[in-house]
Amino acid sequence: MRLISIEKIEALIELKTGLHIGAGDTEIHIGGIDNTVVKHPHTLQPYIPGSSIKGKIRSLLEMKSGLMQQTKGGVLSYSILSKISDDMKKRECELILKLFGSGGEKEQEFVLGPTRLSFADAFLDETTIQYPTVENKSENTINRISGTASNPRVAERVPSGLSFRAFLTMKVFERDDSEKMLEILLIGMKLLEFDALGASGSRGYGRIKWKGLKLNDKDIQVKLDAISLFLEGAS
User: Fold this and answer.
1) Is the pLDDT of residue 31 over 50?
2) Does residue 137 belong to any structural domain of this protein?
3) Full-prediction pTM beyond 0.85?
4) Exposed, middle or buried, 121 (CB in 10 Å: 0-12/13-18/19+)?
5) Which of 136, 119, 120 is nearest to 36 (CA)?
6) Total count of domains within the chain
7) Which residues of 86-99 are buried (b: 16+ CB within 10 A; e: fewer)?
8) CB-hemisphere CA count at 13 Å for 173?
9) Does some domain include residue 227?
10) Domain encompassing residue 129
11) Whose CA is closest to 132, among 159, 106, 152?
């Protein structure tokens, strides 16, 4: 299996609503923040881990494939791929595995080759930084009969309006269909716009917009924007 090229993909992730990707706090202090966002250890500025972007795009693509019942909520694997009889669905799932990998399964590495996509952490775009770069969001539980509030909590979020610079690469090997792999990736990116990144998406957190999408320094934003017509029509 010969490596043909490594494609460079860049974009801005613009926050349309507050974003929360937790830092994994082990302690909660009285009167303090229940759950802080992940921050760079030196600059103390929030960032978006590449693993969060990759994991959410992959999850949405697997939902779209219709195989969630077979995976039982787990990650799509080569062992499941080998049991799919529908040729079109099998091709779609094969591309997902090529792009995102399958948890170190040796059989997949032998048949499908290395994972094609590599996601870097996304750091704040300096031209959009506003201060403060985090906000405290107060929440509580409302009793639906008495109307009284209880269980007060404060979550830290990155406020809407900020942008992060996303960077990823896609390896292309001989016999790879690079156009089809890019198409699958763009569908996943568009699905993320319709869904949410990070925690509490069902409560309005984590809505994003991809902007200035480039492939090897060539503007391909129009390709991503065109996908919205297909997805909105199917919803």
Assistant:
1) no
2) yes
3) yes
4) middle
5) 136
6) 1
7) eeeeeebbbbbbbb
8) 12
9) yes
10) 3-50+116-234
11) 159
